[in-house]
Amino acid sequence: TAPAVGPTLSGSARAAELRAEVTERAAASTERGVTPRLAVVVATEDESTGWYVRSLARAAGKTGVACDTVQLPTDARPALLRDTLTGLSEDPGVHGIILQTPLPPGSVAADLAGAIAPEKDVDGANPLSLGRLVAGLPAFAPATAEAVMQLLDAHAVPLSGRTVAVVGRSTVVGKPLAHLLLDRDATVTVCHSRTAELASVTRRMDVVVAAAGRPGLITAEHVRDGAVVVDVGTNATEDGALVGDVAAEEVGRKAALSPVPGGVGPITTALLLRHTVSAAAVASGH
Ligand code: NAD
């Protein structure tokens, strides 16, 4: 007989709802003469980035959001990247801008993202956006961090007073997510590559979010029975498949786990499109 498997925290249904909302709002905007447009700046040939950008462009196409991939050379200098972002920031036909990582050596994402106009910063990459988020002011949150919250809410996972471990402290995922969780009254522990005894920390938690980019990092030993585990990791395997940071089979036997693909990812892309439609609405005075 098959082993007992915990519930699967799919992101598909929530992503579909968000895409339906985006489709409706994008059509209304286009009718008013403004087609929401997203520009994705890419300066890498990294496999998992390519996978991500293609899935974003596909989702944009389905919802009526225009999506331009601006491909720069993999040895692009910081000045070229900055000029590109500044040009897009000044272009009234562009409403959302994303700077895709990894970047060429010598370029620092947090530095360059300062060239993305905050009102077009649909992935919350400009340090001003993160500062505003932490201060409780309106700003676009990084889409992946917001997607984790949406996934938890879609499955009615309670957060107030609960313990949550965020594994990963990057500026794009771990740090903003920790703040979004704090805003919902969770007790948050942020773990990272120097955390001692990771398993003994995460095993005590009601919710574990894995955002480290390390396949197989979170095993059954890291998770208590009945916990909720959200897998943010997107790691390309050698044969072109996509895996998360969680050893899905063994963890899925004792916890409710979000799948990769099909968990956080589709919600993330839908949120980037939602942010773009919102940015277009503000830009056109709606
Ligand atoms: P990053 O490399 O910038 O940061 C990784 C973080 O994980 C660091 O803070 C590091 O301290 C921590 N870490 C690394 N190894 C660890 C270990 N052994 N134990 C504990 N912590 C460890 O990565 P990132 O940009 O934050 O992305 C994290 C993952 O999320 C990647 O797999 C990335 O592809 C994925 N991601 C997914 C989406 C999505 O939409 N699903 C979006 C963005 C990023």
TrEMBL record:
Sorted alphabetically, which Pfam families does this protein's record hold? THF_DHG_CYH, THF_DHG_CYH_C
**Domain of life, per lineage:** Bacteria
Pathway listed for it is: One-carbon metabolism; tetrahydrofolate interconversion
Keyword match Hydrolase:
yes
Query: EC number(s) of the enzyme?
Result: 1.5.1.5, 3.5.4.9
Family matches, as InterPro entries = Aminoacid_DH-like_N_sf (IPR046346), NAD(P)-bd_dom_sf (IPR036291), THF_DH/CycHdrlase (IPR000672), THF_DH/CycHdrlase_cat_dom (IPR020630), THF_DH/CycHdrlase_NAD-bd_dom (IPR020631)
Q: Which PANTHER family match?
A: C-1-TETRAHYDROFOLATE SYNTHASE, CYTOPLASMIC, C-1-TETRAHYDROFOLATE SYNTHASE, CYTOPLASMIC-RELATED
Q: Write the protein's name.
A: Bifunctional protein FolD
Species whose genome carries this gene? Actinacidiphila acidipaludis
Gene that encodes the chain: folD
